[in-house]
Design a protein that fits this description.
Blueprint lengths: L4 E5 L10 H10 L5 H15 L5 H9 L7 H6 L1 H9 L5 H12 L3 E9 H11 L3 E9 L5 E6 L6 H14 L7 E4 L5 H4 L4 E5 L3 H10 L3 E2 L3
Parallel strand pairs: 1-2, 1-5, 2-3, 5-6, 6-7
Antiparallel strand pairs: 3-4
Helix pairs in contact: 2-3, 5-7
Amino acid sequence: MKTTGAFFDFDKTLLMVESAKPGLRYLYERKEISSGYLLRVFIANIFYKFHLYSDENMANLLLRLYRGKRLSDFQAGAAQFYMDYIRPLLSPNILSKLNEHKKKGHCLILVSASVRYYLEAVVADLGFDHLLCTDLEESQEGLLTGRSKGPVCIDQQKRIQAQQLAAEHGIDLKNSYAYGNHHSDIPLLEIVGHPYAVEPTWPLKKIAIKNNWPILNFV
């Protein structure tokens, strides 16, 4: 018997902000990134908000901050970072939806372009069954390269990975749910029977209205 899935995007869906924002503040306060790099991200984010900077370019810029560092250094503080910086910014309304799915026994899947080491704390705290995300590449010397290991989990990759997971675990996509905020989530939203747009970008909002997809707010 097939099960029903509930796929949740993370940044600006389950979380009310882009996780990079508190993440960069956390690292800057610990002097692990420079003010120059922070300025580059700030400028890129302005272009990104106006859809003049691609999802892939933004993801690759954020991955560069890890270059030459050890993954274990980030993993060591991940749980505390989640509790102090991330958990207070979770969306009350989308958390309520998550708990509704949990009570119904649905399979919970977190799908994000963000990186694994801090999303694992989200999965453990909120009771997700699966995590689809971006992994960090390590060199033979054990240092992070500033690139992803495999594809960044954005756009079509979200659809591909969700379909693979569904096939492996017997998830009925036609009876499943998905929540996303950005037009890059459309490939994921299109494959389920019950897509939801959360505080959507304008391109996603137009698609949601056209297809009669419900639109949700954070609170």
